[in-house]
Amino acid sequence: MTGNDEKEKEALRKCLAKEFETKELGRLKYFLGIEVARSSEGFLISQQKYVTDLLRKTGKLAFQPASTPIDINKKLEEASESPAADREMYQRLVEKLIYLTHTRPDIAFAVSVVSHFMQAPKEAHLHAVNKILHYLKGNPGRGVLFRRNGGMSLDVYTDADYAGSPIDKRSTLGYCTFLGGNLVTWRSKKQNVVARASAEAEFRAMALGICELLWIKIILEDLEIKWE
């Protein structure tokens, strides 16, 4: 619960307490694996404990960290000649990594790639998942910082590769939106159709990015927040 009227918040708390069993936990610090740290500069959301627990369960705490979450020069394919991996274990790992992208946009693309092989994973795909885990080992406390800068400009950046998937030749798009210079939403997603030119792939990425911007614009208007 949040707001700028302390009396109204207290009245709402009392109203809720009449109908439900409630407990006042104070300022938000930890919720569903997401940690919130405040300072005079702003606040940081991260999942350090979640990452550490994941590395401990997978036995990766003692491994050397990787500098990148994925090898860009090596395209993941179906790898039909590679031995099959444990599908349930692979799916559990990828699902945990998907949840981690809530505070780690730096692994969004890599997780998007490995999630394409959930139904029939091979050892080559499991190696790619392990590479992401090794990358997380390097900085488990990294997250998203929201600064107190007072600005309310709304910006979106988009990009796309061209026929990046060696399996179906579809392109992968990405976008990120900033409100007041702070990153608020991001996504990496394979496009639904095969682009016939790099310009078409870029245009589809721009269209999706603008849709996201318009959605945020509607939310801000509903909250009566002025934006640039």
Task: Describe the 3D structure.
With 228 residues, this protein is an alpha+beta fold. It folds into two domains: 27-148, no CATH class; 150-228. The protein has six helices and seven strands, in the order H-E-E-E-H-H-H-H-E-E-E-E-H. The protein has helices at residues 6-19, 48-57, 87-100, 108-114, 123-138, 198-222, and strands at 30-31, 34-39, 42-46, 143-147, 154-160, 172-179, 182-190. The strands form two sheets. It has a four-stranded antiparallel sheet. The chain has a three-stranded antiparallel sheet with strand order 5-6-7. The longest helix has 25 residues, at 198-222. It is globular, with a radius of gyration of 21 Å. The model has no long low-confidence stretch (mean pLDDT 89).
